[in-house]
Amino acid sequence: MIRRIILSFFLAGLASSALSANITIDPTGLAGQEVSGNFQPRDYNAFSLIGVSSFFRGETTFDLSDGTYSLFTGGGSGISVPFGTFTVSGGQVVSATDSLLVQSSDTVGFDLAQLGRVEFDSAELITNVNGLPVALTVALYGASNILRGRTFVHLPDGDGYNIITRLGASYGSFGIAGGNLVDLTGALSLAGGVIHFDQGLLAPTRVLTRQMSDPAGRLNIMVREIRGAFLDDHILFLPPFEHQVLLSSPPAQYGTISVASDLTVTAAAGITDLGVDQQAGITHRLFEVDQGAAVTINLDLSVMSDPPGLVSGGLTNQLGVAGQTTPIRLSLSDTLFNGNPVSYTVGVTRFNDVSLGAFDLEAGAVTGTTGYLVANGNDITVDVCQLNQIQFDPADGEAWRAGDWGIGAHLTTAASLFVPTGESVDFQVRQTPAHPTINALVSPTTGGLVFSGDDFTGLLTVTVETAFCTPPDDDLDGVVNDLDICPGTSQGDPVDAVGCSIAQRVDLACDQNSAVNHGRHVSCVAQFTQSLVKSGEITRDQRRTLLNSTAHK
Question: pLDDT in tens for each of the 553 residues of the chain?
Fold first, then answer.
C-alpha cells in the first residue's frame, strides 16, 4: 500500500555557477505502516521541488547547480517546516544541517533521530459491524494526503500539523517540539506514543447502500472524504463537516450528510434519515441512499462471452460490479457538482481496464452512448457485432484459463470472448501444471491474438473472427439488408451492388402504377431494356422475354 510524504523544496541563496550535478533525495524510512507488529517502510513518497519539478515520488535525482538548498514540508498544504539545508559545491553534496544527512557525495538523506515520529491508527475511525475491520484513508496536513491504517511518519519540529479528511474536515491538530508530540487538540489524544482518535468527540454514522444494486452491494458508494468499504457494513466516526455520499468516479453525488459542531447529524438531497440505531454496541445515526431519487440502469455484459458471465466488467472504478449471466441493476446518480450530465464509463475489468464505451445520464435518463455500447431506454448492452470473437477450444483433458481479461475459472470446454480492436489486452493462457504459461497480445490493428513463447499445438485451438456478426441478408442475395434497396429478390437471381435483379430494376425504372396507360408502361420497358442490351447487361433474347412478359401483364 502506498504511503506518501509530501515535501516542498525551495532554493535559498543559490550561488551562481556553471557547474551542476545529479543529486539524489533519498526519503527512505520517512514513512511506513505497521503490519503484524513489524514496521515495513514504504518508499513511495511524493515530493515537490520548486524551480526544478512540481511533483516527484520516492527516491529521485535532480540536476542541481552549486549552491545551498533548503528542504521543507508542505507539498502545497500551507505548512512550511524546515528539515534543514544541504550544500552542493563542485558538483558534490559537501554538507547538510539539522535533520538532513550527507549519505554520499551525490545523495541527501534524513537523520530520523532528529525528527519526531508520528504514529496513528485510522482504523479507530471506523467500526465494522459484519466482518474484518477496514482502515480509512485520511490526510496529514503538512505531510501527506493519503495515509491509511496503523501508519507512522517522521516530521521536523513545528506547529499546526492537522489530521484531516481528504477534503479538509479536521479530527484535530498537534505540534512537534524536540522530537516529541505536543499540544494535541480536537479528537486526538496520545497514549503509548501513538495518536488515538476519541470516538466520543466524533459523530457515529452509518449509511445503507447495498440496495442500490442487484445483486446487492455491487456499487462502490462512499463518503467522499473517508474511503472505506461498503457503507452498510461500517459505522464511520465523522468530524464536523458537510460530507458527500457519492460514487468514487465519476464524482456523481447522491446527497450529503452534515455534522454540526455539537455533533448533530442531518441529511440532505438524496439521503434519508432513518433515525437512531445500534450495531456492534454503538449507538449511531442511520441513513440510507434514496434509491427512488436515483436512475435505474440495467447493464448487461453477459453477451461478452459464451458461455455468458465469463468476462468480468462493469462501471470503471466502481469495485464490485462484475460480469453476470443476467443484467445488473444499478441505481446511479445523474448529478455532478458542476451541473453537467454524468458520464459513466463501462469497461472490462481484471487487472487492467479495457473500455467498452460510455453513457450519459441527464434528467433521469440515458442521453447518449459511445464506443460499443447500445442503449434501449435505460437498458444498456454491448454491440458484439463491432467486436472480434476469439474462440478457445481446449484438447480433451486439458484445462486452461485466460488471465487479465476476466476468465474466472479453469475450463475444459470451448468458450468465446469478444475483444475490441485497438485494445492491447494481455492474455495469459495457463494450461494444466504440466504446461507453461503462454502469453498473447490482442493486436491493436486486427483484433487478433499475437502469441509469444510456446504455441498451443496439441493443447488448444484458437480461432479469431473479425467482424464477428454477419449482417442480416433476408433475401440471401449477397447484399446485406442495410444496403439492399430491393428486398425480396427471387433466390438465385443475379443482383447489382444494391441488391436489385434485372426484373426489379425494370420495375423501379418503369413503375406500372404511375404510367398513364399500359402502352406507356410497355414503351418505358422497351427503352430501358434496350439500354441494358447496349451496356451488355442482358442479351437480346433476355430483352425479348422481358418485353413479352410486360405486354401480357
Answer: 223 333 433 333 344 444 678 989 888 878 776 543 433 434 334 455 544 555 566 678 888 888 888 887 764 455 677 888 889 999 899 999 999 999 999 999 999 999 999 988 888 898 888 776 677 777 787 677 677 778 888 888 988 888 888 788 899 999 999 999 999 999 999 998 899 999 999 999 999 988 888 888 888 888 887 765 568 888 999 999 999 998 877 888 899 999 999 999 999 888 999 999 999 899 999 999 998 889 999 998 888 888 877 777 788 766 544 445 578 899 999 988 677 889 998 887 654 567 889 999 998 899 989 998 999 999 999 988 888 787 777 777 666 665 544 444 566 778 887 877 654 445 555 555 555 555 555 555 555 556 655 556 666 777 777 666 777 788 888 887 878 889 888 888 888 888 898 888 888 888 755 555 788 888 888 888 888 888 888 888 888 888 888 877 6
CA 145 to chain centre: 21
Please give the Cα distance from 140 to 173 (Å, whole number).
9
| Helix, strand, coil percent values for the chain (each to nearest 5) | 10, 45, 40
**Nearest in space to 223 (alpha carbons), one of 196, 198, 203:** 203
* Rg (alpha carbons) of the chain, rounded to whole number: 34
Indicate the domain borders of the chain. Answer: 1-201, 203-293, 301-330+339-382, 386-465, 481-551
State whether the Cα torsion 479-480-483-485 is positive or negative. positive
∠ CA 207-249-264, nearest 5°, is 30
Say how far residue 319 (Cα) sits from the centre of its chain.
9
Question: Cα(232)–Cα(245) distance, rounded to whole angstroms?
Answer: 13
Pairing of strands 188-191, 313-315: unpaired
- Angle subtended at Cα 370 by Cα 366 and Cα 373, rounded to the nearest 5 degrees: 75
Side chain identity, residue 232: D
Tell me the DSSP string of 385-449.
GGSEEEEEEEPTT--BEEETTT--S-BSS-EEEEE-TT--PEEEEE--TTS--EEEEE-TTT--E
How many whole angstroms separate alpha carbon 239 and alpha carbon 215?
32
Residues 267 and 275: their CA atoms lie apart, in Å, by 11
d(C-alpha 151, C-alpha 33), whole Å: 4
How far is 530 from 506, CA to CA, in rounded Å?
A: 11
Tracing cell 453477459 back to the chain, one arrives at 302
Cis (ω within 30 of 0) for the bond into 250?
A: yes
Contact 185, 267 (CB under 8 A): no
* All residues at 6 or more sequence positions from 534 whose CB lies less than 8 Å from its CB, including other chains: none
Alpha-carbon gap, residue 416 to 311, rounded angstroms: 10
Beta strands at 241-247 and 234-238: parallel, antiparallel or unpaired: unpaired
Angle, CA of 417, 418 and 421, to the nearest 5°: 135
Distance between start and end Cα atoms, the chain: 84
Residue 502 belongs to what H/E stretch?
helix 502-509
CA distance 132 to 466: 46
